[in-house]
Amino acid sequence: MDWSAISGITASIGAARDIAKGMSALRDSTLINERTSALLEQLLKAQEGLLSHNAALLQLQGEHFEAREKLRKLEEAGRERGRYSLFQLRPGQFAYRVNLVPQQSGADEPASTEPLHYVCQPCFDKGIKSVLTGTFMMGVPNGLVCPTCKTQVFD
Questions:
Q1: pLDDT tens, 79-134?
Q2: What's the CA gap between 56 and 50, in Å, rounded?
Q3: Is 131 helix (H, G, I), strand (E, B) or coil?
Q4: How confident is the model at residue 22 (pLDDT cuts 50, 70, 90)?
Q5: What is the domain partition of the chain in residue ranges?
Q6: What CA–CA distance (Å, rounded) separates 134 from 143?
Q7: How far is residue 12 CA from its own chain's centroid?
Q8: What phi and psi, each to the nearest 5 degrees, are found at residue 112?
Q9: Residue 8's Cα: distance from chain center in Å?
Q10: CB-CB contact of 120 with 101 (8 Å)
Q11: Which candidate, 92, 84, 100, places its Cα nearest to that of 154?
C-alpha cells in the first residue's frame, strides 16, 4: 500500500469533510438567518402593535381627561345653579334670586355675607351668570336690566 496515496485520499476526504461542514454551516447559517429574520419580523410586528396600543391609550387618556374636566365643570355649574332659585318678580317676569340660607351640609356654616341679588334668567339658562343691575328714571328706581343681553325686568 502506498502510504502517500492513502495520505492523499485521507487529506482529500478531510478537505471534503471540511467543505461539507462549511456547506452545512452555511446551510445552518442560512437557516439561522432565516429564523433571525422571522424573529425580527415578529418583533417588529409586536413593536408596531405596542406603538398602536400606546397611541390608542394616549387617545383614551386624553378623552378620559376631557370627560373628567367636563364632569368637573358640570358639577361646578350644578353647585352654582343650586345657589339660586327661580323667582317671579311680576307676572311673566322671572329672574334667579340667590339663596341666602346656606345649604344644609351637616356642619354649622356661617351665614352668607353675599348680598341679595338677582341673575338674568335667559342668560343663566345659557350658563352665563349676569347680575341684574338697577335702572333709574329721574333718580327713582325703575327696574332691573341685564348688562349682558339687555333684558329689562321691572319690579
A1: 989 999 999 988 888 899 999 865 554 555 555 577 889 999 999 988 889 999 88
A2: 10
A3: strand
A4: low
A5: 1-82, 83-153
A6: 6
A7: 75
A8: -70, 140
A9: 80
A10: no
A11: 92
pTM here is 0.52
Question: Scanning the structure block, which residue is given the C-alpha cell 351640609?
Answer: 105
Q: Are 151 and 135 in contact (CB under 8 A)?
A: no
Residue 96 has phi, psi (to 5 degrees) of -90, 135
For residue 7, give the amino acid letter.
Answer: S
Phi, then psi, of 88 in degrees rounded to 5: -90, 115
- The beta strands (E) that lie in the chain are given as 84-90, 93-98, 118-120, 133-137, 140-145, 152-153
Q: Which amino acid is at 128?
A: I
Please report where in the chains the cell 334670586 appears, as a residue. 97
Which three cell numbers, joined as nine digits, stand for 58? 394616549
Cell representation of residue 54: 400606546
pLDDT at 73 over 90: yes
Q: Does residue 154 contact residue 132 with C-beta atoms inside 8 Å?
A: no
| C-beta of residue 60 within 8 angstroms of C-beta of residue 69 | no
